[in-house]
Amino acid sequence: MRDDAAHWVVLTGAVHAADSVCCAEYLALPEGCVTQGQLVQPQVLGLWFKDWLHGRDLHIDALYVAVPDAEVVRGTLRLSSDLQADDVAFQMAAELQAAPDAPAVCWDYAADDRVLHASPVMPAPEPDITSASDPRMYAWATAPRARVDAWQQFALAAGLRVSAVMPRDDAQALTQHSALMAQLSPAHAGLALQYDVALGLALGAWHGAGFNFLPHRAMQQQALRRHWWQRMTVGTLSGALVAVGVAVWMSHMAASLRDEIGDMAAAEQVLKQARSAQKEAQAELADAQALGQWLHGQALVQPHTLQWSRVLAQHSQGLWVSEVNQQQAHWQLKGEALSAAQAQHLAQQLKGLDIWAQAPELRHLELTAPKSAVGLSVWHFRIEADLKVGV
After folding, report:
1. Half-sphere exposure of 72 (CA within 13 A, CB side)
2. pTM
3. Regarding the domain delimited by 5-68+149-212, which CATH topology (the fold level of the hierarchy) does it fall under?
4. What pLDDT, in 10s, does the model give residues 191-221?
């Protein structure tokens, strides 16, 4: 993207592969919306682009955009291979969050034993891993949050769904993927390759982004929760309808038997079976409702977990969190600090969250002597609190 124009490629295809180029051109932009390659009026440009799409009768399912290579910082981080996905995300947040006096950044990471897209960047400091398992390499990248926010504002104004904000060189690298390019006819591929970065972005809809600076993991979790709620609702309604249908049908069968053979004993047996079937259907309905309540409880827990996890990530300098335990509403955190003030500061920051029924208290703070002459004394601490009712 330049101040007065942008490259624009639209691909169409099936679920698993692109098959044709719908549009590949040089798009002239309104004056004043882009300055030095940055969106300065994203809402204005988004409304203009919405009208432009309507005039061309183009319907876009997903939007893929890029940030300049000069604004992307890359590196690698070595972590224990036995960490869970949430633990890896927490460690990455602690390492990659911008300092309070620095511009905010968006970040993403990928697990890989190879260094992806090697570039002359200074790697992040690697923590001292004492796990017996072999460490695992993670590649990471950051981009200015202002860039990502501007693209999201643009997509909102244009009525589009932005699926990925990628590094420019990652998008360009996709055009070197022979399997992806083979899906397009030579004529279409030759036309689109004039705009190689835009073509790579469009191919990302089928290949996926190496680094995506949107919060795509949280978005996937939200989509899974919506899917679970939909399934629970359908299951509940289906169970209720089955219960009513079985009860009506069995009642009808009982009446028919009484009319045809006059055997009251047989009719009572059929009615008993109908009642048993109804109880089973009601039990299934109760199970579905219990599942819905559990899912609702999980939906309540996650926002609070995100809040105290963000505090731990932002104030982890000089601290090491060894255990976080939650038993119903009771919450407990254990760790080590280089100074007592750091542990007290962490407890004070946690108190500022509006998720506690009983505010966090520093229940244990003990100085431990080093195990060797060259070691450091550390403070072992324990913070306890109670979450609000319903958490």
Report:
1. 24
2. 0.53
3. Nucleotidyltransferase; domain 5 (3.30.420)
4. 888 888 888 888 888 887 788 888 877 777 7
